[in-house]
Amino acid sequence: MALPKKLVKKIDLIPQKTGVARREQMLEYIKENGTYLPKSLLHAELDRGMLDFVKEDLKTVVDGKVVPTIDIIITLQNWSLFTETWKFQDLDKNASPPFITTVRQPEVKPGTNPSVKYNIPDRREFFYARVPTWDGTRKGLDIYKIPQPVPVDITYNVKIMCKRMRELNQFNKIVLQKFASRQAYRVINGHYIPIILNNISDESTMEMDKQKYYLQNYEFIMLGFLVDEEEFEVSPGITRSFLMIEAQNKTKARRVKKLPSSPKSFPLSYGVGDSETSTTITVPYSVDFLVDKNVNVDSYSVYINGDYVGDDVEIIQLNLNDVLLLEFTKKTAGQPASISGSATLQ
Amino acid sequence: MSQKKVPITRLSKFFGQEDFALDISMGEEWLHGDMNFTLVLYRVDAQNTKTDDVYGEVVSDGIKFFPPVEFKGYVRIDAPSNERVNNSGVEYEFPGNLSVSVYKKQLEELNIDISYGDYIGYYESESRVRYYMVVDDGRVTSDNKHTYGGYKPFYRTILATYVPESEFRGL
Question: Could you give the ipTM of this predicted complex?
Answer without folding.
Answer: 0.73
